[in-house]
Specification:
4 helices; elongated; 10 strands; eight-stranded antiparallel beta barrel; mainly beta
Length: 235
């Protein structure tokens, strides 16, 4: 009895682990889960994984798509690891305001199909695209996690800033070299319409070999903002 009495109340009573679901990642075609475990009185280790939910993105999330795009599917896989530092709340308790630096890897995979008529020549064209990108991200976020009924958690991360490094390509095939040229023009026009800053646009190249067209992103450095909410079960 004496031994049990000497165990700190904060360790014996409060949950120290949380399993979470991140609904804000569903628009990015990924099902995201996360684990958090306390490793010291004021810090925890966070591990997150995302499984691809490759579905059509046309007509979703208020995104305006090219009318020639008749199919577009996307799925994202990711792994994220972080070390979280709490500034409020009780010791060994995943609750309160926090600062969290993190590392993240993403694999983005998709496919699409376009068919239409060129604007000036009115020639018909079609192309099947395959998309593959990898990103490595370094960032930090600020947030607050609070608990209801001692076992339900709400994690609001309201300020996350990260830098990413992207590599990958979009590969397209058409029935003929002529149609391949029309697809290449379509891809180049879409990139130009994005009005990308030079430090991103200069790292993207579009090449054509006969009926094959390839758009390549080579070591593209880009900024990103992270924010959202997760719901978890603490134990």
């Amino acid at each position: 009895m004496l031994g049990l009495a000497q165990v700190p109340d904060t360790i014996a009573v409060h949950p120290r682990n949380v399993f979470k679901f991140l609904p804000v990642n569903l628009p990015f075609q990924t099902i995201s889960l996360q684990y958090e475990g306390m490793v010291s009185p004021r810090s925890s280790l966070v591990l997150g994984v995302g499984f691809p939910n490759q579905q059509s993105v046309i007509g979703k999330y208020d995104i305006t798509f090219d009318p020639d795009l008749v199919r577009a599917e996307l799925g994202t896989t990711h792994i994220r690891t972080a070390l979280r530092f709490y500034y409020t709340g009780k010791s060994y308790h995943p609750n309160g305001f926090y600062f969290e630096p993190y590392l993240k890897y993403q694999h983005i995979k998709g496919n699409s199909y376009i068919v239409g008529f060129a604007d000036k020549t009115h020639k018909p064209y079609e192309g099947i695209q395959d998309l593959n990108f990898n990103t490595f991200n370094l960032g930090f976020q600020l947030g607050v996690q609070f608990m209801l009924a001692k076992f339900i958690t709400f994690d609001l991360y309201f300020l996350g800033i990260e830098a990413g490094l992207l590599n990958g390509r979009v590969y397209s095939e058409s029935p003929s070299a002529t149609q391949g040229t029309l697809v290449r023009n379509k891809i180049e026009g879409a990139i130009n319409d994005m009005n990308l800053p030079s430090f991103i646009g200069d790292r993207i190249t579009v090449t054509q070999t006969g009926y094959r067209v390839k758009a390549t992103a080579d070591n593209v450095v880009y900024p990103w903002y992270r924010g959202g909410i997760s719901i978890g079960i603490a134990f």
